[in-house]
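Researcher: I'd like a structural prediction for the single chain below. Treat it as a standalone chain; there are no partners to consider.
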Amino acid sequence: MIDIPFFDSVKKYDELGSTFVEAKRLISSKQAEGNFLLIADKQTEGVGRKGNSWFSPNGGLWITAGIYNLPIKSSITIFTALMIVRAIIKLYPDTEDYIGIKWPNDIFIDGKKMGGILTSNFPMFKYLLLGIGLNTNNPIPDELKAASLLATIKDVSLSHNYEKIDHESLLRSIFETFGDNLPTLIEQGLEDFLEDYYHYSILENKEITIHTEFEDYQGIVSGLNKEGALMVKLDNEMTQPFLSGSVIKWS
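Model: Treating it as a single chain, here is the predicted structure.
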């Protein structure tokens, strides 16, 4: 039995279609109690944002956290991304200069996507789901243009020779960091975390194109608001918040 702080129960699977889908099933069938964590060694039908598939082979870290009665909504994705970055740097300090966050839900390392976060709220059951996928030890096909944590560490580490990312240690680090900082988020929102977020944001002050369900917009990123919306100074000089959307270009 794996014991991870913050969770009342942890379930581990050798293979699962999707930890996110399984978590939804457990909640809707009232089999879930308290905070729970699902871990799969491999996902055959991994889920990303907007229904995209998520490459989830053996070797990566594929999890969904079910959090009960959490009074946080839009800012939780940004907060979680920052907690993951802090946790990785704590365990692997050589990543400090290479790791970053791409709004709203991606973890980048050495300029390539390493992981992502999928959030969903189930107010009827008082649950929030956090799906997290991290390329840790798994090889990455060239066509994905992504990166793994282990391969990057091997490239950049000058002081250690890591053979494998220890998933249990990484999960402990992530959710210890998450749990320690969650009260501040609940009481004060993102304000206390923004300086740190800006340090790791790969979009800050960049010219971007953001795709929304209505149209694409171009402008310069000028920070976040307290809800976690991306503030963009558009070509017409107006600054507009975006709570959702996909940044498809940046420079």
